[in-house]
Amino acid sequence: MFLSVFDMFKVGVGPSSSHTMGPMVAGGRFLDLLREQPFQVAGLRASLHGSLAFTGVGHATDRATILGLAGFLPDSYEHAAAEECLAQIEATKSVSPEGLGTLNFDPKSDLIFDYDHPLPGHANGMVLMATDAQGDVVVRETYYSIGGGFVVTEAEQSEEPIRDKADAKTHPYPFETAAQMLEMAAKSGKSIAEMKRANELEHMGPASLNSGIERLWQVMEDCITRGLERDGILPGGLSVKRRARNIHEALKAEAGLNLTAPHTINDWMSVYAMAVNEENAAGGQVVTAPTNGAAGVLPAVIMYWLHHVPGASRGKIDEFLLTASAIGGIVKHNASISGAEAGCQAEVGSASAMAAAGLCAVMGGTSMQVENAAEIALEHHLGLTCDPVKGLVQVPCIERNGLGAIKAVSAASLALRGDGTHFVPLDACVKTMFETGQDMMEKYKETSLGGLAVNVPNC
């Protein structure tokens, strides 16, 4: 099993990796499929199922699907160009993806929210179709958005499930579990980040790896900066106010007056995370870490480390991200990072575990302490539901990222106080998280049919 650092961390667009980025990616894959056909198609259709239908509007799944079928991709997304394209599609009732000409597509009739027929492969399912001149479907493909911007077809999901997928390429340190990771670290004398780097270098040169990681942090840092500078009301109808800017200004003022209480450091962690998730909620550029809904946790912990921990150095950010991606890969391979599949424990819980591991590593933790930090953070998110009010990635998601960052720092600190030995192995915690997610009622898994989503007035 090999999941690259660039699989776990993807540059994309808010508000959701599974509900926004995934459908956009699926649209791009479908266009590629059509370009391979020996005949010309005349029109496009799409149907959204399961969680993609129930919270699709709040997560901008409709916009993402339309834009994906028009040729937009998350990594190169430009907001102004997208808005212009959407207006043109509404006016002409057609899309013009590169190499396929002009295709009939009326979002009002050709994009269907199917609430009654969930697809069997995953809660986030969608069917994309191409039609001929008579309107008959000539190409059909089912896609599942399985979290973190990952997309698989129905055939890929059924024939070779992603969590059981064997990696065909040989890597120096092919660990699939935390136990294997620790064993390899002990035998090799290398850190988790060093092993992860060695695996990455099987696929790319050191310059590409270093520049790619540098870009990831730059996008994360820019997202925090924008979030700390902007105010106003977030879109979607809940009238949620951006709070990060005001909190940040207050924190800076208090620090200048030397009036800061010790516990205020928690507010710094929270405000960095909230800045990211307010940007995500507004449809801004973020990095999946490992998802959009949990995108604020890890960059908040890095920012906390850089600005509040003596001895921190930007030169070690690659160690942080490589360590975190190793932990995220273990979670994704053996469980899930999808809120629609396993609740928010799979999103913010995984993000907190990744951030705890990364922080522990750059603060001098051993591999055993890093594994311990990740386990502590994940364990204390077990059972966390995903119940976004009105289907928007705002309440409780924005604050939840702040608390996930605080837990990550606490977990790393506790692990560093010990010698790495502990009672619950990370692998057992990951297994428990997935089993808990399987047992969790569907209404608590990103459908907005239970929890806060129904007990808080939202209109």
UniProtKB/TrEMBL annotation:
<keyword id="KW-0408">Iron</keyword>
<dbReference type="InterPro" id="IPR051318">
    <property type="entry name" value="Fe-S_L-Ser"/>
</dbReference>
<comment type="similarity">
    <text>Belongs to the iron-sulfur dependent L-serine dehydratase family.</text>
</comment>
<comment type="pathway">
    <text>Carbohydrate biosynthesis; gluconeogenesis.</text>
</comment>
<dbReference type="InterPro" id="IPR005130">
    <property type="entry name" value="Ser_deHydtase-like_asu"/>
</dbReference>
<feature type="domain" description="Serine dehydratase beta chain">
    <location>
        <begin position="4"/>
        <end position="155"/>
    </location>
</feature>
<keyword id="KW-0479">Metal-binding</keyword>
<keyword id="KW-0312">Gluconeogenesis</keyword>
<feature type="domain" description="Serine dehydratase-like alpha subunit">
    <location>
        <begin position="188"/>
        <end position="453"/>
    </location>
</feature>
<dbReference type="GO" id="GO:0003941">
    <property type="term" value="F:L-serine ammonia-lyase activity"/>
</dbReference>
<protein>
    <recommendedName>
        <fullName>L-serine dehydratase</fullName>
        <ecNumber>4.3.1.17</ecNumber>
    </recommendedName>
</protein>
<keyword id="KW-0004">4Fe-4S</keyword>
<keyword id="KW-0411">Iron-sulfur</keyword>
<keyword id="KW-0456">Lyase</keyword>
<dbReference type="InterPro" id="IPR005131">
    <property type="entry name" value="Ser_deHydtase_bsu"/>
</dbReference>
<dbReference type="InterPro" id="IPR004644">
    <property type="entry name" value="Fe-S_L-Ser_mono"/>
</dbReference>
<dbReference type="InterPro" id="IPR029009">
    <property type="entry name" value="ASB_dom_sf"/>
</dbReference>
<dbReference type="Pfam" id="PF03315">
    <property type="entry name" value="SDH_beta"/>
</dbReference>
<dbReference type="Pfam" id="PF03313">
    <property type="entry name" value="SDH_alpha"/>
</dbReference>
